[in-house]
Amino acid sequence: MKVLVPVKRVVDFNVKVRVKTDGSGVETTGLKMSMNPFDEIAVEEAIRLKEKGLVAEIVTVSLGTAACSETLRTALAMGADRGVLVETDVELQPLAVAKLLKAVAEREAPRLVILGKQAIDDDMNATGQMLAALLGWPQGTFASRLVIEGESAVVTREVDGGLETVSLALPAVVTTDLRLNEPRYASLPNIMKARRKPIETLTPASLGVDPAPRLTLVSVAEPPRRQAGRKVASAAELVEKLRTEAKVI
After folding, report:
1. Average pLDDT over residues 136-150
2. Does some domain include residue 164?
3. Count of domains in the chain?
4. What is the pTM of this model?
C-alpha cells in the first residue's frame, strides 16, 4: 500500500510572530521555519504503518516555494521514501491546496492520504475535508488512533463529546490530531540518507490546476492588549464590581 503525506512549511511554533507594519500580513522574513507540527504527526503515523509491514511506500508532498524542499528533506530524514514538490510563488489558499493535492493523489494513486488536521499559521482546518470531497473518498478527521484492517481504516476521532470510532473503506483521507503519536527525531545517518532520496518537482500548470487566490485579505491586526487587573479591599467590594462592572461574555 502507498501512503501520501502532505507537509507544510510554516513559522516554527516556538517563534513569536509579528504583524507587518502595513497590516498586510504576518512578518516571516528572517524567522525560523519548520514542518507544521500536525504534519509531523502524519509522517510519523505513516512510518509506523510501514514498520508494521502495512505500507510499502511513503510519498511526501509539499506545495509552495523552492524552500519547501527543506521540509520535504525533514520528512525524508524521518523515514519517508521520496518527495514531490509542487513549486509555485502564488500564495496558496486551502481550496487551491486541496485541488493540487487531488491532482497529485490521482497521479500517485495512494490507498491512504494522511495529513495534519490544520496548519498552525492559519488554523483553517479545511484542506483535508476539501481533499476528501474532491476525491470522493471517505474521511476520518481529528484522528487519535488509526488501525488498518484489510481494506478498511478504523479511525478513532476526537469530538466535542469524547471519542468516536469510524470504519473507512480504502482509499481514504485521514487528518491527524495531537494525541495520535509522538513524532520521532531524525537521526544523523537518516539525515545523510535523506540527501540521496529523490524529490520530484512539478508545477500547478503541469497538474492542470489554477492556484489563483479566491479570497482577498483585507487586513491583519494584533489582538488588543489585556487590561491590567485591579485589586479590591473586600469581598463586598468585589461583589459590587461584579454586579455593576463585569461584562457577561
Report:
1. 96
2. yes
3. 1
4. 0.86
Cell representation of residue 109: 494513486
Which set of grid coordinates corresponds to residue 59?
Answer: 510519498
**In which domain, by residue range, is 113 found?**
2-216
pLDDT in tens, 209-226: 999 988 888 888 888 888
Q: Is residue 230 part of a domain?
A: no
HEC profile for the chain? CEEEEECCEEECCCCCCEECCCCCCEECCCCCEEECHHHHHHHHHHHHHHHCCCCCEEEEEEEECCCHHHHHHHHHHHCCCEEEEEECCCCCCHHHHHHHHHHHHHHHCCCEEEEECCCCCCCCCCHHHHHHHHHCCCEEEEEEEEEEECCEEEEEEEECCEEEEEEEECCEEEEECHHHCCCCCCCHHHHHHHCCCCEEEECCCCCCCCCCCCCCCCCCCCCCCCCCCCCCCCHHHHHHHHHHCCCCC
